[in-house]
Amino acid sequence: MAHCFCGRGVRYRECCGRLHRGEARAGTAEELMRSRFSAFARQDEAYLLRSWHPATRPERVEFAAGTRWVRLEIVRTEDGGPEDERGTVEFRAHYAAGFETGELHEVSRFARHDGEWVYVRGKVTRSGDG
């Protein structure tokens, strides 16, 4: 299989696939962010819901028809390390939809819940580049 969607340059099976299959847990907020991007690229709703904080988790995840997530760019991280309880990851998620391309620019908040990193919420700061 090809390299993982998260951009680390490792095969999916050995990278985010381990988290998606439940064989490993994210050690940092950034690792969880990368695995969630890969889950969006694969439309893995079950993993996305599992990795979402129960206080903010939706009932379902809506996937935009015809949208392909093609590249993740981590802009910055704040806290979110192995010893932290909270963390922030700012990223740009690049996509293609038909002949259009764009990006989702978000600052996401993560926290530990029952000892595991989970996504809490994000603030989209800009979307679309043409």
Poorly predicted runs are: none
- Straight-line distance between termini: 30 Å
Quaternary organization:
single chain
| Beta-strand content bin | 35-45%
CATH architecture: Roll
* Mean of all residue-level pLDDT scores: 94
- What is the general shape? globular
Widest sheet: strand order? Answer: 1-2-3-4
| Portion of residues within helices | 10-25%
What's the domain count? Answer: 1
Radius of gyration: 14 Å
Structural class: alpha+beta
Number of strands: 4
Count of DSSP H/I helices = 3
User: What's the CATH class, please?
Assistant: Alpha Beta
What is the H/E order? Answer: HHHEEEE
CATH topology: Nuclear Transport Factor 2, Chain: A
Q: Which sheet architecture does the biggest sheet show? A: 4 strands, antiparallel
InterPro entries: NTF2-like_dom_sf (IPR032710), YchJ-like_M (IPR048469)
Protein name: YchJ-like middle NTF2-like domain-containing protein
Domain YchJ-like middle NTF2-like: 28-122
Description:
By secondary structure, the chain is an alpha+beta fold. The protein has one domain (12-127): Roll (Nuclear Transport Factor 2, Chain: A), CATH 3.10.450.50. It is 19% helix and 39% strand. The protein contains 3 helices and 4 strands, in the order αααββββ. A 4-stranded antiparallel sheet has the order 1-2-3-4, covered by helices on one side. A hairpin with a 6-residue loop joins strand 1 and strand 2. The protein is globular and about 45 Å long. The model has no long low-confidence stretch (mean pLDDT 94). This is YchJ-like middle NTF2-like domain-containing protein. Residues 28-122 form the YchJ-like middle NTF2-like domain. It holds the Pfam family YchJ_M-like. InterPro entries: NTF2-like_dom_sf, YchJ-like_M.
